[in-house]
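Annex B, item 7. Sequence and structure tokens for protein A, then protein B.
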Amino acid sequence: MSHQKITFFVSKNSDAQEAFKIITNHYPQSSLDEADYIVVLGGDGFLLRVLHQVLPLKKPVFGMNCGSLGFLMNPYSPEHLLERLHKAKEVALPTLTMDVIDQEQQIHTFHAINEVSLFRTTALTGHVKVTVDGECHLEELVCDGILLSTPAGSTAYNLSAHGPILPLDSNILALTPISAFRPRRWQGALLSNQSTVVIDVLKPLDRPLAAVADFHEIQNACQVTMSVCPTHRLTLLFDPERALENRILKEQFLT
């Protein structure tokens, strides 16, 4: 294991910077091209940005918590890192593709690890049409917004919007309204990860909506198409005792 190389991505916060100084005394920084592993020092938000950056490389990523929440992270320790990487459990995460047509008829494409969301940008509620696999299921949803979440993202914005928590191996996506006004009782839908969801903004000039793939935002969206990307998958590594699926399960029993 000693020949294996690591490249570190480090948050700007002081805890992460200090951790980097300590850990590189044990394990030298390698170039990204040569690295066998990517180790991220920071919090969940920083990890998400790094995952977007390294998405095309298809290298395993091991997060070490030097932030606040650290739901997607492992505990920080400068010792026995190569042994931890060797024993770590792999979790394959799907990504979503978001294709947005804006009011200028320009097309924008981004990927999301957690969710793709649409939300109103003025005081007026949004009016959208919801189509799944070519069939219209809601002619008009009046809401503050709507989002499509992966299992990994189901404990993030989706959960805050009262969407369901999804097991990692469920092969399901959660389509969740944000403050639905009409139909008021619609609480969302569970969809196959083979589904394609199209959201048409019905009154884009009077009631504009923005479309967001994690942190990539497009204003004045007219139509948003969302589906799982077949070619972009991420591999996250977790200490066996910190398995992500176990933490997601425990989230369902929090009171």
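Protein B:
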Amino acid sequence: MAYRYQKLQIPTDSKQGNFYEVLQVPRKATTTEIRRSYKRLVLMAHPDKNPGKREWSEKQVKSLLEAFDVLGDPSRRRRYDRELQEKELLLKKATPKKRRKPTEQDLFFFRKNDDEALAMRVLYFLMHQRGKEAIHLVEEIEDRLGDHSLFKHLDLNDCLDCYFLLGEYLIEKKRYFDAFRRLEKAFQEQHSPRLRRPHYSLVLDHLKSLYLRHLPKSLPTTKAVELLEEAPTELFPEAKERARLKVEIARIFHKADDLAQARLNLAEAFELDPGCSQARRFEEELVQAS
């Protein structure tokens, strides 16, 4: 029976833990990491995502906002850290010693090295914000078993969470194509609304940003054009969004000194969206360069 790690849960309110626990970040987290975790948790707890638990949802959002108001402000965070440390010292003195806290080696998937245990270890690392160890282990598994082999050893929800968190980590490390591969898999598996995880909208946002900003600059011309031309219509359903893709393809060809293809794709962008501001700006750049 596969071990199910409890993941992405929001404490009931700030009284059940300190603000770092509420926002699920380590105490050494940067302001950027705190803001990112706050946004993700608010999205998960939002009433629109929890129509049957509105009172619960509003309480979660209030707790998250209370925590972020303090930890998101450097001066308030410093004051809070001092007060938290003092309270913990007092509590430690007043509390009798407890039994030893379980270590990682007490978890079954750290005592075994079969493929299922390794996959569970990846999930554990990601849930504890240890992306470097997670991606190293994922690449080790995939080198041996093939791409996306995690799906053979984790249930679908765990896999989708893994690919989302791996994608975010790889974007942060500027490994854009590797991030794209993970997020694309998470996107492909969630076409049915019944299967969608709370972070689905973030997957879409990350993929759009990769298509329109990072992939054109980080891949060879042929590969970048191929990916943008095959971008799924479900991700870019509107004509103005597909026009943006055409503009980026035109920019790629222009950078490769293929002016004919650049102008052809620019014309297609205008056909899709005559008022496309990005196409207009690029057209002006072509005129100035000629």
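Comment on protein B: The CA atoms of residues 42 and 285 lie 41 Å apart.
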